[in-house]
Amino acid sequence: MPELPEVETIRRAIEPCIVGARISDVSLLDPSIAGPEGPESLQAAVGATVRAVLRRGKHLILLLNGNRGVVLHLRMTGAILLQEPATKARVRAVLSFSNGEKLLFNDMRRLGTIRHYQDMKPLLQRLGPEPLDEDFTADSLKESLSRHRIPIKAALLDQHIVAGVGNMYADEALFLARIHPMTPARNLDIPRVASLWKALRQVLTDAIGSKGASVSTYALPNGEHGTAHFGFNVAHKKGEPCPRCGMALQRVMVRKRGSYYCPTCQPPSGDTAGG
Ligand SMILES: [Zn+2]
Questions:
Q1: Is 2 among the catalytic positions?
Q2: Which of 11, 55, 56, 58 does the annotation list as catalytic?
Q3: CA of 197 to the centre of ligand 1 (A)
């Protein structure tokens, strides 16, 4: 499913196509994509000019005048395309622009949403810090984790603690930092949090450089695939040898999410939290 690197890759691809253009039409083939506000709410965006294309966590934001915005959330299988897909299409919405560009929201599992916000502030403030921003530091992460006794894997997926990290990149970062996914978040001391902070920024930066991971339905808006998954050490690799020590990688459920790790390189700390 699309996480920060995938959404950022999409943002970079569509930004030059639609910034400065007016939204000329919003066509919903599946009205449920508009969320609880209903399809009428999206018509308020028609006629507005796209001032910028932003990403916040896993949200893609078309910023309009007056701090309004159209927010696309891809969830499990959502994809943004700049042209009709060749195969496996499940187009749920089409945004048309005054310069002739179109954004198609394709979604096999119909979990993604497009919503219009009169004011973007509440959504932006509700999310935790951006892991690649300068003010996200090892100290600020430690401060935040110290308030949570949940497993560190679950803490990394909590969008209030850090925005944009999902299952794949959390597993990859914990592997690099040699931390067992069930370790209680608040038990990690500063050196271990610093390792994790560094690992998080590394896996996310590398994945953006590889244009995201096409492990499931994710593709770029032009249909190309990302290659970040070719660099994965543990994610989706149960039973394969650990690239560091050769031990078979394992999968454990942490709060209903399958988590991949090396039992040797990421030993339990003796104080593992309940799943
Ligand atoms: Zn290992």
A1: yes
A2: 58
A3: 20
Domain boundaries, the chain: 4-126, 138-261
pLDDT tens column, 146-178? 999 999 999 999 999 999 999 999 999 999 999
Return the CATH architecture of domain 138-261.
Answer: Orthogonal Bundle (1.10)
How far is residue 178's CA from residue 22's CA, in Å, rounded to a whole number? 48
CA of 267 to the centre of ligand 1 (A): 9
pLDDT digit string, tens, across residues 106-123: 998 889 999 999 999 999
- Residue 32 to residue 149: CA distance in whole angstroms: 36
Out of 130, 178, 257, 263, which one is annotated catalytic?
257
Q: Is 3 a catalytic residue?
A: yes
Tokens of 68: 């309004």
Interacting residues of 193 by C-beta distance below 8 A, sequence separation 6+: 138, 141, 142, 145
Name the fold adopted by 4-126.
N-terminal domain of MutM-like DNA repair proteins (3.20.190)
